[in-house]
Write a structure and sequence with these properties.
The protein is mostly helical. Helices cover 74% and strands 3% of the residues. A two-stranded antiparallel ribbon has the order 1-2. Strand 1 and strand 2 (157-160) form a beta hairpin.
């Protein structure tokens, strides 16, 4: 029973980490000492039938905890992003969290010297996020938040209509989000901010919009399976190059989140000072949290 509670609580922390842009669910699992165990359970669930029961129990405990963590914090961040001033402070805090993960990445391998190949991989990662974000904003964005309610049960959940292409985009976002969740040091939520879908997905969770959440879930499952296998292989064979790719994703996320702030900036001495304070707090929190266990 104690083991269940401890593992469940670790799942809650991983769920919370996945909601906060700049905090990596993979890093949290790394810090909590269950990263390898978790990625093995996801990546080899279908292949290792002898361990399937063990994997199922672990994934159930972590999964239930993660759902609780996501639901608890989704409402909080939905409220914070509704007002321009609080949104600016929140985004600056997120930027600090994202930047604070950089030292963690740089210390993951003894050979992180820059060369042409690694620099190219770094640039490719940045360009990939920016291009994906551009096409994502064409398909996603606030315009698709408006949908007709088909069925609703009080405030518990609702079923709505959805544009076909936006539905495909949500599946793709679920896939990308799942892949980034597995990467230690990189935040899936930061990527969703870059793609213009972070607030939308918080809204779907907060309002229990089943169609949208189901579509995202369809993308998450294959994303986790593919990422657990592929990323582990790349980290084993090409660790520095993989980490440079992650660094590129981090830089791209900082750029994209900064653009969110610049859409409607709140100026003035006090807002600017407080924004810088939240930026520093985010960096400090991320730096010390990711440095708990190397």
């Amino acid at each position: 029973m104690i083991d269940f509670i401890l593992t469940f609580f670790k799942g809650v922390l991983i769920g919370i980490a996945n909601v906060i842009p700049g905090v990596s669910g993979g890093t949290m699992a790394f810090i909590l000492g269950i990263y390898k165990e978790l990625t093995e359970a996801v990546g080899f669930y279908l292949q290792k039938s002898a361990k399937r029961k063990q994997y199922s129990i672990l994934l159930l405990k972590i999964g239930l905890g993660a759902i609780v963590g996501v639901v608890l914090f989704a409402r909080l961040f939905t409220l914070l992003l509704e007002d321009n001033t609080s949104a600016q402070y929140t985004y600056l805090f997120f930027i600090g969290l994202i930047i604070g993960a950089v030292p963690f990445i740089l210390n993951l391998h003894h050979d992180m010297k820059i060369n042409f190949k690694r620099l190219s991989i770094f640039v490719v990662a940045i360009v990939a996020v920016i291009i994906t974000s551009y096409f994502g904003q064409k398909s996603g964005g606030e315009g698709n938040m408006t949908s007709e309610i088909v069925y609703q049960v009080g405030d518990f959940f609702m079923i709505t209509t959805i544009d076909f292409f936006y539905a495909l985009w949500l599946v793709f976002c679920g896939f990308l989000g799942a892949v980034s969740m597995v990467l230690p040091g990189f935040s899936g939520s930061a990527l969703l901010v870059s793609l213009g879908e972070y607030y939308n997905i918080l809204h779907f969770i907060d309002k229990r919009m089943l169609v949208q959440l189901a579509l995202i879930s369809i993308g998450i499952l294959p994303g986790l399976i593919v990422a657990s296998k592929v990323i582990n292989k790349f980290m084993e064979k090409y660790p520095p190059e993989t980490y440079y790719f992650i660094l590129g994703l981090i830089v791209a996320s900082v750029i994209q989140v900064s653009l969110e702030v610049m859409k409607e900036p709140v100026l003035g001495v006090i807002p600017i000072v407080l924004s810088l304070v939240f930026l520093c707090l985010g960096f400090i929190a991320s730096y010390f949290m990711s440095g708990v266990k190397k």
